Amino acid sequence: MSIRCVLVLCLALPLRAEPTAEFVFDTSPFPSCHASTIVETENGELLAAWFGGSRESADDVAIWMARRDAAGWSALTEMARHEKTPTWNPVLFRSADGALHLHYKFGTNPRQWTGAYRRSEDDGRTWSETRVLPAGLLGPIKNKPLVLTDGTIVAGTSVESYHAWAGWAEISRDHGRTWRRHGPIAHPDQPWGLIQPTIIPIPGGLRMFLRSRAIGRICSADSYDGGESWSEARETDLPNPNSGIDAVGLRDGRAVLVYNHTAKGRSPLNVAVSEDSGATWKKFLDLETEPGEYSYPAVIQASDGAVHVTYTWNRTRIKHVRIPLEDVR
Asked: What's the pTM value of the predicted model, to 2 decimals?
């Protein structure tokens, strides 16, 4: 075959898409930010939220949000602020009735948190007033809930006391209006334990993955009754340096996990894929490898199949990465 024919064939082949990265904002009214969350609206736009202020746990920390449409990310909107009290860990998700939910926590520290939320019926353009959850319920603690086919919402939550950590599941059967807590999910040998569950579907049930303290590994537990009861947590093969993780079950049956593949620190930040419901993982993408803090990822699959990730970039900005589905391999 001639060189000219080869060139024509190569030009005829479609160009393979690559992951694209961007910052959600270039300038901001706060010097520090952390703990982002992302959701797709019904019209295919993206919403991202995070907490920002002078520093984590400072009493000026508020919840902020931005929208991404075809023109890019919008200006920032302040979504929640409590007088002389910091806010924490927003979580965006959409329930089966089409409503968007923004959950977050407020309080001096995680041992004194109160759960709160706002609800939108118009794709996030207007929101309800802030509502406070009953004592004993915190709502999704860091990661998006899993919405089951019957509309049931299974949210991973957790409690951090002075001497123990444990994961829980909070379940709503009325599109997020009321909740009941189930658990705890704990490691049998480590009371310092586990927090911040992320949940994926598996054949016949659910599987959660949890951040660990003093264990050094991401842990997992299973439920076969819709999240009402869970197995004991067990260690996976993936390292965890006491840093947040997030996972999503893809529509083709695979799962994607974003995490720090290291025993210490919060760099690098990596993406892995599993073809066996999270029993084994294959790391396929490094989002960040330089020294610094790249942490607290949030991950979703959009309606076009692409995987979207947001994460903390050195505590000063939020980064957004779009991964084409064909790159998840």
From this structure: 0.94
